[in-house]
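Section 3.1: Structural characterization of target chains.
Under the original work plan, the team committed to producing a structural model for every single-chain target entering the pipeline before any wet-lab resources were allocated. The record below documents one such target. The sequence was received from the expression subgroup and is listed exactly as submitted; it comprises 221 residues.
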Amino acid sequence: MQQLRDRGFFNGVLLGMTFSFVIGMVAVYLLTVLEVISVAVLDVPQIQVLFEWSRRNLGLSILPFGITLGLYVHSLRTLQQRLNDKRPQDEISQLEHLNDVWTSLFFGIGVIWTAIGMRSALLHALGDPGVAAQAGAYAVLQRLVDGGILTALTTTIVGGVGGYLMRVIKSSLLGTRLSRFYEEQEQHHANRVEALLSDIRESVENVSARTSTAYALQEEQ
């Protein structure tokens, strides 16, 4: 008992530290993207390249993508634990539906951010028609890039690829177990119906037997 309590305490501390670290990293990323602060560690070439790629291609969309992915992992892990505990079917179905919701939301974020990025890019490039006409084609393309068209295209790819990967992961990890679980539930329901019909048949036979016996006694009298 004490070991389980210590293990639960350690897991809680580890989860809290991980959550705090993730929140801190997200906050630093957002503040840096918005140019509120400047982090010296970004002078490291590898981190600088990764940061610049994320900023130009994902922008602020990394926040909803990350939150949705975290919720997906949490619901997938919870679903696995509920299957191990053999929880009721309605609870399993609700968790599976919730997992599918996070997958669909991941797709949706990619689509929504694509529309946001395209609108922002077009407004930035063509907001002033006179300036756009004088700037030339290359300058307009550069303004589209600066306005966020790369973010629009990249979030489409990330949303689509990530969403399909989430479906594949769920099917690979829990697909067979979910199918077996639902088959067992259907078989259990069929057995209950069969047992109920058997009880009804026996009751009818008993009533018929008693009626026949009573009728035979009346005839003898």
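The chain has seven helices and no strands.
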